[in-house]
Amino acid sequence: MTARDPQPFILSTRLQQVAAGAVGRLASHRASPRHTLPLRVGTRGSPLALVQTRAFLTRLTRFCPVLRDMGAFQEHQINTTGDRELGRRLADIGGKGLFSKEIHEALAEGRIDFAVHSLKDLETTLPPGLVLACTLRREDARDALILRPGLVPPRSGHPLDSLPEGALVGCSSTRRQAQLSAMRPDLRFCLLRGNVQTRLDKLASGVCDATMLALAGLRRLGMEDRADIVLAPDIMVPAAGQGIVGVTVRESDAELRELLSAIEDPVARAVSTAERALLAELDGSCRTPIGGHAQLDPSGQMLTLDGLVAREDGSFLLRRRVSGPARDARRLGTELGHSLRADSPADIFADVEPV
Ligand SMILES: NCc1[nH]cc(CCC(=O)O)c1CC(=O)O
């Protein structure tokens, strides 16, 4: 396992054969009902989702230029429940897979051939017949704090010192809220949803003093300079899968699975396997604040996973770390999840009625 992306010019013969073979088979399936070119890629329609999808297609065609030459892709934008319900907190809408249900349906019904997701928004148990075929190299996993105009990041001291006593933080994630509250019980929270630009606009209009966003999203949108304070994972444990883009396909689609697995990033696969196993084992309600963040050591052989479970108001917060061989990523995640759950109050995992 290595942290470097395979470069096109050092593609192994084996990978070149995979690419050529898969494309040949895809092309020759032109007339078959199972595969016709162009391949239809499903995505949400948000600016971030579209940037991620186009970056993925670029990655795929760099590996397999003939696909680009064939004009092989057609983008299908799919509106999800999460996109429609912008007035409510995701945790209050309830259910998992809010950003993926309609996309899974399109894939299962054969209206699209593969779909690009933020792994953070992809539920750990996919519907039967669908698989996560590819994980792309992780963008930064950390969360960033964005301050309203007039507040300045501290030069030294604690990163949250720039927030005045009682500051109002626009935050729609229970994980972020719980960790902020545990550090700063004086902070107050309000709902701030919508896509990245909408949230930044609301902040600029003065509805709150600060908000939190994934640095990965800001970076992909070319807005990294809006991140006033980047919070290290030991201050704010990121969400499982944050910063990783994943691609789903039908399990039965051997050609696409093979092609996509050839371009996946093995580091992203290992860390996301650990993080998602942790999440699955904790099996929290959609409100439960859960964090999971894995890293590989420079050799790529050893994996360290940080897990966090908390109560939304920050009155309970448990963090724990495990390390072990990267090849045991899933087991490490499951074990850490089990141990965190065993030592947390049961009410944290209960699916309470929305308030
Ligand atoms: N549903 C929100 C969502 N899903 C993925 C990202 C950021 C990009 C990523 O984590 O890869 C975001 C926005 C945010 O949390 O700031």
TrEMBL record:
Organism ancestry: Bacteria, Pseudomonadati, Pseudomonadota, Alphaproteobacteria, Acetobacterales
Gene3D superfamilies reported for this sequence: Periplasmic binding protein-like II, Porphobilinogen deaminase, C-terminal domain
Known role: Tetrapolymerization of the monopyrrole PBG into the hydroxymethylbilane pre-uroporphyrinogen in several discrete steps.
HAMAP family: Porphobil_deam
Pathway: Porphyrin-containing compound metabolism; protoporphyrin-IX biosynthesis; coproporphyrinogen-III from 5-aminolevulinate: step 2/4
Note: The porphobilinogen subunits are added to the dipyrromethane group.
Entry GO CC: cytoplasm
All copies of domain Porphobilinogen deaminase C-terminal, residue ranges: 272-341
Cofactor(s) essential for the protein: dipyrromethane
GO molecular function annotation: hydroxymethylbilane synthase activity
Pfam family, one: Porphobil_deamC
Name this polypeptide is given: Porphobilinogen deaminase
Catalytic activity field: 4 porphobilinogen + H2O = hydroxymethylbilane + 4 NH4(+)
Family membership noted in the UniProt record: Belongs to the HMBS family.
EC number assigned by the record: 2.5.1.61
